[in-house]
Task: structure prediction
Amino acid sequence: MNSNRPGRLALVILLCGILAPLEIPFPGTRAALATPTAALNALTSLPQFERAAGHRTWSFPKDHGQHARFRLEWWYYTGIVRTADGRPFGYQVTFFRRGLNPAPERSGSAWRTGSLYLAQIAISDLSQNRFVHSARTGRDALGLSGAAPDRQEVWLTSWRADPLAVNRDGVHLEAQDTALGISLDLAAEKPPLLQGEDGLDRKGPNPGQASWYYSIPRMATTGTLRVGQERFPIKGTSWMDHEFGTNQLGDDQVGWDWFAIRLDSGADLMLYRLRAKDGHATPASGGTLLEPNGAITRIRIVDANPDGSSDARFYAQLAPTQWWTSPGTHARYPVGWEIEIPQLNLKLSVAPAATDQELRADTGLPFSYWEGAVWIHGERAGHLLRGEGYLELTGYAGDLRGTFR
Result:
């Protein structure tokens, strides 16, 4: 079964967070839509965007760039880093693109908008149990936001991801805000890992209900984090995801639990549990284990042992072990987990590095979700394991507004 991870939830903001009129060069639509509702109704009815299906030939570094013929796209970076004396931090930088015009080239007014953008940055000061984050939105009119078509270059005003000259798949992240700042170099230690079937990552049974998706699980990271006025030179390891498609969740899917795990054995594990309305994992749930020698195992997630002994597919069972209730939103999140993959003799415990790593709607997001650093303990075939990673939990604090359907 394919690995699965739907689009990042904050893309919702790209639909409902830009309140100014949009000039959208589509035949049959008005040049300027005066209200967000009118813009939404017009945009969601447009059929021109491609859907993720079939086969594609990947080429890097070109495919690190924008794929304008798909409606949704995001570049996602997380890491756990430390100061010279061992003080740990988690961080997140994400750029989202919501396409309005699937044509890669636009002409006419410089005010025309082909895509809307959102960027998020967050820092978890783990030793101080402190979490800060910020977000901003924009459009690609006048070049204020955008993404290059042939390289890893994405920007939203002064927040940027730029190619790292000394590393083909590397990137420099620069994002400064009043409450926090990030200035990091990420150098890929492994080539891009294609998720799903050669990069086609299915989210459900319907045609095109998928995305093109790859990860770089290990990127050597150096630079500076800032919390308030305090600056911290750091080193550590980051994870990158890049994903693009046009539709995502089915009507029966209400959220997801996503894990990105690096183990001290050198193995990397991505798992994604798509939740149905009754809380069970939908059949599209799955993941990928990348071994230190480069071997890849595709995994599916089930809520119970598969019936019969003839099922030779690798499967994972996930169960929550710790819950945290947000004092701000009152959402109850499963922040601790047990993961078992019996056929790999692998058992892992996932524990939050800090419980309050919730990104809240009252800071500019349309709804709240939990995403943060986690610690890993476990064993494989009798050998003890430790690790670190990131966990994302969506759909616990409210409706996702159908953005990914």
